[in-house]
Amino acid sequence: MPAGTSVRRTAILTIAGRTFLRQGYADASMDGIAAEVGGSKSTLYRYFPSKAALFAAYVEEVGTSARADLAAVTVEEREAEAVLEDTARAYLDLTLSPSVLAVTRLVMAETGRFPKIGRIFYERGIQHAESRIAAILQRLSERSDSPGWDFLALPGAAAHFRALCEAGLHERCLWGVYESVSGDDVAGVARQAVACFLRGWPGQLEGSAIDVS
After folding, report:
1. Under 8 Å between Cβ of 73 and 90
2. Phi–psi pair at 182, nearest 5 degrees
3. What are the DSSP calls for 108-148, one per residue?
4. Contact 149, 143 (CB under 8 A)
5. Who wins on pLDDT, 116 or 206?
6. N or C: which end of the chain has fewer CB within 10 A?
């Protein structure tokens, strides 16, 4: 993408994001966004063919820098528990970032009327992060120095891990109970999530009481 085009696209997404968060998805209009960007609506449509496409691009843009931390988790030559704690912290840093919290609240408020934006948020945000977590778990399960960790590659393991990370701290931030959290808070929740995860999954496998497919 040419530099000028990239700069223009970024400017559009910045303005569109402010508009979505200020007005909501329903009331945000391509006309209004185009006017604030300072160009014609036809120019805006050359970058994004619809409001839904613009919203999808905005969701991806919001998570780009935060997802980089998740993608950078080092798996090789490290204790599996340490890898999982790094993964949990990176995921929490993603979900607790102010921009992601703001988009999450927006989507929760609007999905009842516009299911499409819920699907966009899930596919471009949640599913993307969960796929990265699944890749980390898969690699840990394959390591020859991690015997007995095959359960990490089971379907549903990444979703369970993600849910444990979100329990408590994330919910309090999402609903405005906490305005901010410290690095120590995040690290503590990450350790707790990993401990619960490692206790729960082997037990589920042995007892076969819960269907993890």
Report:
1. yes
2. -95, 165
3. HHHTTT-HHHHHHHIIIIIHHHHHHHHHHHHHHHH-TT-TT
4. yes
5. 116
6. C
